[in-house]
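new request in #modeling-help
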Amino acid sequence: LPVPVAAGAPAPPVDPFAVANVVGLLAFAVAGALKAADADLDLFGVVVLGVLTALGGGVTRDVLVGRVPAALTSSGDVAVALVGVVVGLAVAGRARAASTTLGVGVGARVRVRDHPAFLVSDAVGLAAFAATGALVGVDAGLTPFGAVVLATLTAVGGGSIADLMIGRTPSVLREDFYATPAVLGGSTFALAAAVAPTGVPTLACFAVTLGVRLLALRYDWHLPTV
Amino acid sequence: LPVPVAAGAPAPPVDPFAVANVVGLLAFAVAGALKAADADLDLFGVVVLGVLTALGGGVTRDVLVGRVPAALTSSGDVAVALVGVVVGLAVAGRARAASTTLGVGVGARVRVRDHPAFLVSDAVGLAAFAATGALVGVDAGLTPFGAVVLATLTAVGGGSIADLMIGRTPSVLREDFYATPAVLGGSTFALAAAVAPTGVPTLACFAVTLGVRLLALRYDWHLPTV
Amino acid sequence: LPVPVAAGAPAPPVDPFAVANVVGLLAFAVAGALKAADADLDLFGVVVLGVLTALGGGVTRDVLVGRVPAALTSSGDVAVALVGVVVGLAVAGRARAASTTLGVGVGARVRVRDHPAFLVSDAVGLAAFAATGALVGVDAGLTPFGAVVLATLTAVGGGSIADLMIGRTPSVLREDFYATPAVLGGSTFALAAAVAPTGVPTLACFAVTLGVRLLALRYDWHLPTV
């Protein structure tokens, strides 16, 4: 993934945006692997769902703008996603073992996904992916609508594909304030790109997406049904 | 979307093909939004399904021929689709209100989709989208089979993706004479493209798709199961 | 599809790899058509699922590397897939007729798919598609991971899309040793491509995929769930 850096700035020892991207890849891969284990997929299915959840949004983004997906041409993100799958397998295996002796397996997996550390990591990933998606969209000359679509798809596309694979309506379509922060972040990027120097739109998108997502978690926001 | 115009003809004040395209975008977006409301999606889900139903076929078409989707690089069709979503939300909201007081909400939404004005608008959209898809396919140098696939996908792809999102087998695969008119229209385009001047294949595809679809509605045609 | 031929070798009268590809297209199209008939799709749905099962993996592969899908720009594979659909329709029709008189229809269709001749043909197709996918991936400059993904997707993508269309979790994610042979074959290709002359990686991938798949059938191998 391209890592946006403010023009002219000296490269920091560790790029905070790259860190956010890694945190997101890990959280998404763990979530996908646990979802697959809950759906009784076999080992291949768990690996596929973990990797798809982490990388599927970016693959969709790249296909839409006519690029060969970065996940197929470079190895960094793939390696991080596979680490996340291994972590997910370990968590699922421990939950399975606990379930066998204590009957609390599914509960243990749910607890992992409801743990504040997991939810914050997932929100960081949502924000990093939305920012990357919006950046790719604007660089590809898309309209503001197109950039918002790409931000949202990059952020929630992987999880949505994973949901479809196990026969579920993507959860973002039913019980939102997971996609909405990405929509707002992408819109912020599109607005900022018209007026602010390079780097600012990415940071603004990241901050808005993360902030709105954390507020939605804190106050249990939901969109209305119709 | 490219608007085919007969070579040498003076541009008419209002291009009838562009009108057909707008009618189709509106009808498809309304249908998608109502489908989402029936499936109890939230507001984000209703917007996504409405927009996907209207634009998803064209996006699929563009990806298959290696183009960045027109829906992400120009704003006209997107604006029309969003208007359709708003109309769909209004219809769904009125139906919901009626349901609360009278217990007839779902019935009201069904009535909208079974209304002759809606069905004819939807058929006009099917025909316009099939014609655009076949044109893009032939322009991209596809085989006749490829052009028929592109005509059909452009016409029924958006609704099929929306069906998949809410866990349904695409209705065109179960109870047809909705995709078949597009297949016949696309085949007409491919045949006409070999012998007739520019513009004629588009018109012939539009006429055949629309005519067959209206006959299928009038006489309740169905394909056999096997 | 590109048919790999060892450099400098005289063209054989019949390329065995092309034969394997045709066998696979036929087996996949028959399987898809029977799956659709079992799911009570109509005639259009049966044709779509048969063609998608045979060609969908290759279409996905081509889209990912930025090519217009070969299935839309050349006619050979399409014609073979349509022959397979016709065979599938005939088998399904005979089974339906038997069912009406004897109550054994579904059993008859299952017997076709469990027949050793069908299972071997399907395994040959799996191996041929995996080899083509890996070759396209390496030619497109993908990483070894990307080449393995492309081998696997080309081999199992069509059947998985067909599963999704009828509301099922792709069977390769639940009860494997169908995708795993393609993963191992693709990995073999990626390794061999680094050291062996043109043609060898393709043959090695084909042999490993076919061999592992036949062993899995013979000894009823399954991957563990987590």
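bot summary: DSSP finds nine helices and no strands in chain C.
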